[in-house]
Structure formats: C-alpha cells, structure tokens
Design goal:
The complex is a heterodimer.
Chain A: E1 2-6, H1 10-22, E2 26-30, H2 33-42, E3 47-51, H3 59-68, E4 75-79, H4 84-92, E5 97-100, H5 105-119, E6 127-130, E7 133-136, E8 141-144, E9 147-149, H6 153-164, E10 169-171, H7 172-178, H8 190-202, E11 211-214, E12 218-221
Parallel strand pairs in A: 1-2, 1-3, 3-4, 4-5
Antiparallel strand pairs in A: 6-7, 7-8, 8-9, 10-12, 11-12
Helix pairs in contact in A: 2-3
Chain B: H1 2-9, H2 11-77, E1 83-88, E2 94-97, E3 111-119, E4 127-138, E5 144-150, H3 152-202, H4 218-250, H5 252-270, H6 276-303, E6 312-314, H7 316-333, E7 337-341, E8 348-350, H8 352-369, E9 375-382, E10 388-394, H9 426-436, E11 440-445, E12 455-461
Parallel strand pairs in B: 7-9
Antiparallel strand pairs in B: 1-2, 1-5, 3-4, 4-5, 6-8, 9-10, 10-12, 11-12
Helix pairs in contact in B: 2-3, 4-6, 5-6, 6-9, 7-8, 8-9
Classes of the chains: A alpha/beta, B alpha+beta.
Chain lengths: 223, 465
C-alpha cells in the first residue's frame, strides 16, 4: 500500500514512516503543504496522512485542494486540536478520519488500514462473510457454521464493524467512535465488556476462536 | 482645581446648563410678551384719552374763541387729576392751566414725552419731577395749547414689571444652573465611583465592585451588569490560576513516576535486559497524563463558554438510553444491579456529546466506588419545577455533606478515594458541562447499600424556553 505522510515534524514523520514500513507499506514524506499537495496529485497514493498545522499551506487547505482536483484518496487528519467542533471542521473539509495528537502508533496504523478497506467497498454489500461466520445485512441475521446466532442490535453493529475490517486491528477508540458515536474515553472498560459478550456468542460454542485481543491495541476478527 | 474643571466638563452639567439657558430664554420671552401687552395697552389708552381731550378743547376754541377755551381749561384744571393743561399767548405768556410753563423738550408733531415739576405731595419744599405725555396744539391765532397726561405712576409700575422680568429671568437661570450643578455633581460622583472601580480592576484588583444603591435606575443597572461581568472575569481568572497551580502540582508526580520508569527502562536495556516492564509502565503513565491533560483543557474550554453556540434541542431519553446500553454490561460485570429509567417526551437544549461525557463520568465513578452486590441507577425525570434531572445513584461510600461542594472543584480528591485511580477531574467536568447548559450539579445521599450511604449525583438542566 502506498502512503503519503504530510507532516512538518521530521522526528514524528520518520517514526511513523518507519512503523508503517515495518507493517509492509511504501511510505513517502512531504514536509510542507505545497510539496504535499503536489506529491499527492502526482503520485498514486492509497492513503494520505495530513497534519493540520503545516507550513506554506494549511492541512485543511491541502485536503480541499485535493478534493477540488477530484482526488478520492482517503485522508487521515492528524491534529493537536481535538475538540468535536474542530473534528467536524476537518471532516467537512474532506477528511475521512481524524486522529488527535499525541496518538499511539497502533491507533494510527489501525485507522490507516481501516481507511483503505473503506475505499474499495465495491457494490453495496448486503452480505458479509469471514470464515464460517456470515452476516446478512438486510435480514439482520448472523450465522456461524450454518447456525443462527441471536444478537442484540448493538452487538450486531459491533460485529458488522469488526467483519467489515476483518483481519485488521480495530482499537477501542475506533469502536467507541464508529459503533457508539462517542468521542471521549470512558474510564470504565465498557468496550471490553461488550466485546467479551459478543465473543461469548460467536466464539465460545465453537472450536476455533475468531475474535482476538491484540495486546495494547484492540481487537482483530480473523477467520 | 482639575476636579472642578473636570466636573464642568461632565455631560450632565452641560446638559443642565443648556436646559437652564433654554428655560431662562423662554421665561424672558413670556415676560417680554406680558410687558408689551400691558405697557403697550396702557400707553395706547393714554394716547386715546389725550387725543379726545385735545379734540374737545379745539372744538370749544372753534366755537367760543379763546375765552371759551380759557374757561374750559380753568374748569378742567381744578381738582386733582392726571390730566395736564396749559394755554399760552402767542408770545409765550401763560393764560391758564395746571402747568406753569411749557416743557423744555422739543414738541413733535404728535404725542411727545416730557417731564414737569410739581410740589411734593408729601408737603416738602422739594419739587418732584414727574413724567408725562402730551400734545402741543398751535391754534389759528397763535395761541398754544398743551394737553397732557401724567404717566409717572404707570411708568413706575411698568419699570417695576420690567425689573421683575429681568430679575425673574436671571433667577430662573441661576436656579437652573444651581440645580444642574447639584444634580450633575451627584450623577458625576456616582459615575466617578464606577470609573474608579474600573480603574482599580484594570490595575489588577479584581475584588473591587461598583457601588450600588438598588434603586433600579439606569446607573444602578449599569453597576449591576458591570459587577456581573467582574464576577465572571474573577471566576475565569481564578479558574485559570487554579488550573495552573493544579497542573503544576498534580502533574508533577505522574511525570516523576514516568521519568523513573523511563530511567529504569534505559538501565535495563544497558544491562542487556528487555526493559519492557518499566517501558510499559511509562507508556501507561503517559496515557494517564494525557487523559488528565485533555480533561483539564476540555474543562477550561467549557468554562470559557466556547461551545455554548452548539446547543440544540434534543431528547435526553435517547442520550440516557444509549449510555445505559453502553454501561449496562460493564456494571453487571462488576457485580452491580444496573437500572435505567428514561421516560421519553422531554426536551433539553444541549449537546449530546457533552451530556454523554458528563454522564459517563458519573457512571464511571458509580461503578468504580460501588462494591459488588450493590446497584447503580441511571434515571431521567422531570422535577416539580420543570427541570430535567439526570441522576446516577450508587451504593458506594457516598460523599460527606461538608465535602460535596469541594469535590466539584478541579483536582480535589477525598482522602478515602486516594487509592483509586483518577485525577479528581471527573466531577469538575460534569459541573462545567452543567454550567454551559445553564444547569447545575446536585450531590445528595443515596438510599444506602452494601458500600455505605451511597451517592446520588444529578445533572440538572433547565427546561428549554
């Protein structure tokens, strides 16, 4: 996967570049808004990581210019400004996801990989399948190994998100944002409890576990 | 001296001065009108009387000659009267009349004014000069006839009226200026008091407040508004200072811990060990620090009122139900009975994210402090006064009544909770959220449970207008 990171902090950019390379991606780096915009327009990147505060051209302006040029590459905005209104501003400018600095690298990696998946949805999906786990989005039913599993509405949405990002790490913050639409971190391990209940329904009765805990990062659903 | 000059410059004084001048001018005009109508009427009446008297005498001369005229003049001159007569020969010798000589004043064609001497009516030796008006008629044979009228008395009256008019106008002016001075001085003193307070505050004394007399007039209202503004400024700066102090104090220990962990990690690596454990510890300390830092920033932003414009009408039942759904599993996992009551149909003017976060903080606390076997109740209700109360009741140790006010402040943690994780910011954030919604936080004793008296923490939001 080709990734462009537009970030003026050289140390942070190098750290992210190294981490993403180790995860198997090809990473380019642009130190300012103008260079970043030119590189993004020339190169075929799968994901752009854009810092909000950049020299020469502000991050949001870069994204707006890209969208004006019909570039559809998914954009992850990085910013030290984390309040809801600033987040909304970023998404309105054309960003696809928003991550507040300072962030854990695992969180960044999970979100970048989730963005690429989102870019290729193909036709509107009505069925999801991971291994022997099947989900029918129209009938709202879930089966594993042909057996129907009864899920609460929220458990259904949680599993849907996990299945759409099968094979990838999803973090607790991502689940809280995308499944529950909350943008704060509860002190109680609320997400863990929900995941463990879901695991009790889709994994426990079967031989092979699919829903794995990734230590220090989050969860991964894998066939 | 400068204060007097400053006083003369005040708007009020200038306004009163202007009003007084206008008033005096108006009084002068009215009195002038009275003068012309009365004095004018009087002199016109005199002129008519002189004309008719003269006409009668001329008729008598035409009919009976100079002797007839003489008789009539003698007749008229007898007795006290305001009418004056003098008939003289063509050579100027007096024939008859109650005047001794023709006046020195040059007689004109028509009516003219003159003075004449008359013995003092009080009986003194002095002669009294009196004013008169009259007409000199030259008869065909060269005889001259003066017909006049004494106007001394009416002239005196008119003089007195004129004097009254002038002194009256001046009096009005003086009174107006004096009144203006008194009123504007009072006004200026009150304004000065407010200005002095503003200067003191600008100089750094934030505790000063503008004086009030509670009359409800516009100056009093201005003082009230100014004081409300100063209260807010004082609260904000106090909050800022407090936040600064707290950050310095409460972030120092986790930073110290983090540094120790990092050093331990470095030492471990130098010795060829993995160093994973201290580094993990440092990472988790960083996480705590960031959470605290974010909470402080968020509270500060809320207290500055930056998000007030984001409030919109919404149903609190949905917020409560969503959050109940999120926390139910965790509460049950902690061995607590969890109940949610969310009657629909109420509205609040609010921000879903903020209210959710405030309630999440309350629920975090409730679950953290209630021992297994207890309960946590999340409940929305409309109070008897129409407010929307969202409460979280737990069966934990509760908060002693005397500490309830204090725990809403930043970084305040009770001794009994020191062993629990947290930075003492949860309730301050709830309070900040309540305030941005123009609501409040109520802390009261719960119904009691296995962990103690329990706590009922309520976010009370006003009824939307």
């Amino acid at each position: 996967m080709r990734i462009l990171i537009i970030e003026d902090d050289k140390v942070a950019a190098e750290y992210v570049r190294k981490g993403l390379s180790e995860a198997g991606h090809i990473v380019d780096h642009a130190p300012d808004g103008d260079t970043g915009l030119n590189m993004a327009l020339d190169g075929q990147y799968d994901v752009l990581i854009v810092d909000r505060m950049l020299p020469k051209r502000d991050g949001l302006q870069v994204i707006e210019a890209l969208r004006a040029e019909n570039s559809r590459a998914p954009v992850l905005i990085l910013s030290a400004l984390g309040e809801i209104d600033q987040r909304v501003e970023g998404l309105r400018a054309g960003g696809d996801d928003y991550l507040t600095k300072p962030y854990a690298f695992d969180e960044l990696l999970a979100r970048v990989e989730a963005l690429v998946r989102r870019r290729n949805p193909g036709a509107v999906q009505t069925r999801l399948q991971v291994g022997d786990l099947e989900m029918d989005l129209l009938a709202r039913t879930v089966k594993r190994a042909g057996e129907e599993i009864n899920l609460q509405p929220r458990e259904f949405r949680l599993l849907e998100f996990l299945m759409k990002h099968a094979g990838q790490v999803v973090t607790r913050t991502m689940l809280l944002e995308k499944v529950w639409d909350y943008h704060f971190d509860p002190q109680t391990n609320v997400i863990d409890v929900h995941v463990s209940r879901l695991r009790g329904k889709i994994d426990k009765p079967y031989d092979r576990p699919m829903l794995h805990t990734v230590r220090g990062a989050g969860y991964r659903l894998q066939a | 001296m400068s204060s007097r000059r400053a006083f003369l410059r005040t708007t009020t004084f200038r306004l009163t001065l202007f009003a007084a001048a206008l008033f005096a001018l108006f009084a002068f005009l009215i009195l002038a009108y009275v003068y012309t109508t009365t004095a004018g009427a009087l002199s016109r009446q005199n002129a008519r009387a002189i004309e008719s008297e003269a006409a009668e005498l001329v008729r008598s001369y035409n009919a009976f000659g100079v002797d007839g005229l003489n008789r009539l003049v003698l007749q008229r001159s007898i007795g006290a009267s305001a009418n004056l007569y003098l008939l003289v020969e063509p050579d100027g010798a007096r024939i008859s009349g109650n005047l001794s000589t023709l006046p020195d004043e040059a007689p004109g064609e028509g009516l003219f004014s003159f003075t004449y001497a008359q013995p003092d009516p009080e009986g003194g030796d002095e002669l009294e000069r009196r004013r008169a008006q009259g007409r000199l008629i030259v008869l065909p044979a060269g005889y001259q006839l003066l017909v006049g009228m004494d106007v001394e008395d009416s002239a005196r009256i008119i003089n007195r009226v004129t004097d009254a008019i002038l002194t009256g106008s001046l009096g009005v002016l003086a009174f107006g200026v004096l009144l203006g001075a008194v009123v504007s001085r009072r006004f200026a003193e009150r304004i000065n008091a407010v200005n002095q307070v503003a200067r003191d505050v600008a100089a750094g004394d934030l505790r000063r407040r503008a004086p009030r007399n509670f009359s409800g007039d516009e100056l009093d209202e201005m003082s009230e508004n100014l004081n409300a503004m100063l209260d807010r400024i004082e609260r904000l700066t106090a909050g800022l200072r407090h936040a600064g102090d707290s950050i310095a104090h409460d972030l120092r220990s986790p930073l110290t811990r983090m540094r120790t962990s990092l050093e331990a990690g470095l030492r471990a690596v130098e010795k060829g060990e993995s160093g994973e454990e201290p580094l993990q510890q440092a990472l988790s300390d960083t996480e705590d620090l960031l959470n605290t830092f974010n909470a402080v920033l968020r509270i500060a932003r809320l207290e500055a009122g930056e998000r007030r414009e984001m409030l919109s009408p919404l149903d609190p039942a949905e917020i409560v139900a969503d959050l109940g759904e999120l926390y139910e599993a965790a509460a049950e996992d902690a061995g607590l009975e969890f109940t949610v009551e969310a009657p629909p149909g109420l509205t609040v003017l609010g921000d879903r994210g903020l209210i959710s976060q405030a309630l999440a903080n309350l629920l975090d606390n409730a679950i953290k402090y209630s021992p297994p076997g207890g309960f946590v109740a999340l409940r929305l209700r409309r109070t008897s006064t129409g407010e929307r109360e969202i409460s979280v009741t737990d069966s934990g140790p509760g908060i002693p009544e005397e500490s309830r006010e204090r725990v809403l402040e930043r970084f305040v943690r009770l001794e009994s909770s020191r062993s629990m994780p947290g930075a003492g910011l949860g309730l301050s954030l709830v309070k900040a959220v309540a305030e941005i919604h123009k609501g409040r936080v109520d802390l009261s004793e719960g119904p009691g449970g296995p962990g103690g008296p329990g706590l009922c923490a309520a976010l009370v939001l006003p009824e939307p207008k």
